[in-house]
Amino acid sequence: MSIRFPCKFGWLAGAGLALVLAGCNKIKLVYESSDWLLTYSVEDNFDLDKPQRALLKEEVDAYFHWHRKELLPVYADFATFVADSLRNGMRPSEVDSGYARYRELYRMTMEPALDKSVNLLVSLSPEQVDQWLEHVHKKNAKMHKDFSGSLEERLDHRYAKIVDELEDWTGKLTKDQKARIKALNHTLPWNGNLRLEVREKVQEHLGDILRKKAPREEVRAYLANYLLDTDSLKSEEYRIRNHDFQVRLKIMIYQIHNLLTPEQKRRAIQQVEKLATEFRALSAQE
């Protein structure tokens, strides 16, 4: 399951973290175009002037230079850990430790993006902030519409994404495997509406403090709470449901592994090992 960032302040880190979970065959294409995609994404959300566009290009280039040189080897080590776990039968303890390593990798990916994001945000004029808010309000309205369907429809959409991305690693799943994965998917809470609630809260507050030209330290502190995924901006209900989701997700990963055939497991190991090799090769180019 890929990770989607619910607001564009993670523009520098989104593609990097996505590499951890994207299908192996998609990685080279995604990574080689990530700097362009992120630049386009920011410019699509903010009406930047010429100096701001120059700053954006400088920050994106610097981030990806650092990311390829310093972080891709860490991604490679994580992929090697996953391959070894698959080869050894993936015990529950390895799912727990693997998830903990993934969360740390998430933080390592996001932290350098924080100051680079703040550099651009504090340069915005009140008019640019209003333009951005108008843009995200339209996107949020679409998300509300997407979430207006039944719970069954939302779970079916998530199930389809899980199967699609899992088959990138394992090859074609059987009808019985898909049915059992669908049942497992229904054990995971659906928290999309709660995530959207946090997204909107963050956007409105950031809009307010940016429009008022708040001190850089205030902008950074608030953005850090969001980008580094602390619980401070989440409701009590969201914190409880998110913890439940994480516990159930780790159980689901272990159970899905046990559904795979020996051939599917071998293919997954080969794919993950290939991933580690490609990460190291990309890093060596710097």
Describe the structure.
- The protein is an all-alpha fold.
- It has one domain.
- Helix content is 80%, strand content 0%.
- It is globular.
- The N terminus is likely disordered.
Distance between the termini: 29 Å
Radius of gyration, in angstroms, nearest whole number? 20 Å
Overall 3D shape? globular
State mean pLDDT (0 to 100 scale).
85
Tell me the strand percentage band. Answer: under 5%
The run of helices and strands is HHHHHHHHHHHH
Q: Main beta sheet, described?
A: none
- The total of helices stands at 12
Low-pLDDT regions: 1-23
- The overall strand count is 0
Number of domains: 1
Helix proportion: over 70%
Structural class: mainly alpha
Write the layout of secondary structure elements.
Elements: H1 14-21, H2 24-32, H3 34-45, H4 50-87, H5 92-121, H6 126-146, H7 151-170, H8 175-185, H9 192-211, H10 216-227, H11 236-259, H12 262-284
Please summarize what this structure is.
The chain is mainly α.
